[in-house]
Q: What sequence folds into this?
């Protein structure tokens, strides 16, 4: 009976066994490639430090930390593969996922969406979800979540410490003071740019701008009123000057003043026309 069970294993057992075995082989290949890349990056950092290129070594340390993150993530997946291989017989006996391998099953299902370098994770996800249903989010390994979904860029202190460790490993006397000063200048410059960019959205600055705009509008209104008043004053002055200073009206007023009213009619003054004396004689003759 045992020989029969060994020869005719269920599909779940076969698929899990083959997927975990192929996955371990693939992870080993990826590990060797990543380790070679880490050695290459370390030698680059050493060459940069020897040539005084501290900032280039600092930037290369970020790439090195990313490679180390991937290796540690693959190590966690390999541990879960070993857990699944050891508990396959227990998983065959129960319809529900056993407590001993619940974290491993949930973490491998979760990692299928975040680790594209290992296609066997998708096969394991299909097998586990068909047998046990959807995974429990609370059972996923937190370190794996932190290294995949919640990963962030390494901090400045971590990158400087990485460069220090490499310099110490290769017996290089390196002082990070110049690099720290350069990074502080860059951060201060970025902060100033952010303040300038965010200043357009600052309510205080907008309030000041509105006050200045209101003042300019008031000044424009006052200037318009002043110009209007000045124009009206000019028009009044011009009209008054035109009314009092026109030559025709002056001559008419002079004529009215020079005319004398006599009991027998109006006699124009003698100095108005050259023939005024002859007209007076003609009028006297007519009256006689």
A:
């Amino acid at each position: 009976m045992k020989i029969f069970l060994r020869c005719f294993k269920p599909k779940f057992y076969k698929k899990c066994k083959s997927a975990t075995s192929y996955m371990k082989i693939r992870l080993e290949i990826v590990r060797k490639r990543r380790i070679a890349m880490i050695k290459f990056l370390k030698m680059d950092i050493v060459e940069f430090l020897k040539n005084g290129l501290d900032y280039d070594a600092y930037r290369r340390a970020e790439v090195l930390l990313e490679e180390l993150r991937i290796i540690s993530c693959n190590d966690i997946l390999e541990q879960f593969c070993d857990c699944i291989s050891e508990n396959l017989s227990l998983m065959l006996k129960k319809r529900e996922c056993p407590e001993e391998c619940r974290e491993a099953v949930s973490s491998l299902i979760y990692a299928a969406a975040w680790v594209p370098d290992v296609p066997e994770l998708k096969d394991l996800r299909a097998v586990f979800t068909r047998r046990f249903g959807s995974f429990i989010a609370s059972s996923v390994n937190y370190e794996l979540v932190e290294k995949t979904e919640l990963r962030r860029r390494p901090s400045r202190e971590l990158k400087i410490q990485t460069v220090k460790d490499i310099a110490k490993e290769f017996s290089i006397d390196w002082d990070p003071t110049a690099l720290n000063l350069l990074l502080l200048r860059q951060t201060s410059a970025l902060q100033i740019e952010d303040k300038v960019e965010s200043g357009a959205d600052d309510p205080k600055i907008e309030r000041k701008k509105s006050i200045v705009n209101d003042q300019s509008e008031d000044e424009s209104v006052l200037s318009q009123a002043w110009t209007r008043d000045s124009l009206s004053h000019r028009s009044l002055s011009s009209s008054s000057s035109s009314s009092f200073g026109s030559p025709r009206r002056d001559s008419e007023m002079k004529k009215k003043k020079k005319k004398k009213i006599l009991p027998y009619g109006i006699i124009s003054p003698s100095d108005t026309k050259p023939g005024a004396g002859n007209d007076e004689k003609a009028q006297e003759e007519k009256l006689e």
In short: Residues 11-184 form a domain with the Ferritin fold (CATH 1.20.1260.60). The longest helix spans residues 203-245. The CA atoms of residues 114 and 148 lie 6 Å apart. The beta strands are 260-262, 265-267.
